[in-house]
Design brief:
Strand content: 5-15%
CATH superfamily of one domain: Barstar-like
InterPro entries: Barstar, Barstar-like_sf
Order of helices and strands: HHEHHEHE
Protein name: Barstar family protein
CATH topology of one domain: Barnase, Chain D
Organism: Paenibacillus arenosi
Family: Belongs to the barstar family.
Pfam families: Barstar (PF01337)
Number of helices: 5
Length: about 130
Amino acid sequence: MWRAELSQKNLWTELSDKQRVGWLEVTRLNYNTINRNHTQDQENGEYELNGKHVDDATSFFCALGEAINGPGGYYGYDLLSMTDCLCGSFGAVPPFNINLQGANGKLKQEQKFLQELKEVFLNRRVALHWN
C-alpha cells in the first residue's frame, strides 16, 4: 500500500489497535515521501478532523495527520511528537483551528489524554472545536 500513492482517506480505520500504532510509525518514517504536496507550513488554517473512528489517542493521531496532511499524513504519534510538529515543517503551524466532527463517545472517556491535549493546544494557540 505504501509503495502506491495514497489517495484514499480513512485507510487506517480498518486496522487493529496494534496496526494503527504501526501506521503512525510508517507515516512518520515516510512523511517526506507521502506529503510531497504539503511542503510549506500554513498558518491560520482550518482543519476538519473526522472523529467517527476516533476513540483513543492513537486513532486521534491517525485522524489528525490525515486532516492536516491528507491520506497517510503525519502530525505526531503522541503529545510530545505532536508538540514538535507544532514548531513547523509538518504542514501546519499555529495559530490554527481543528474542527473535530462526529467524535466517538469513547474519546470522551480518555480524560487524561484530552486534558493534556487541551493544555498543549492552548499553550500553542491551536483551537479545538467539538461538533
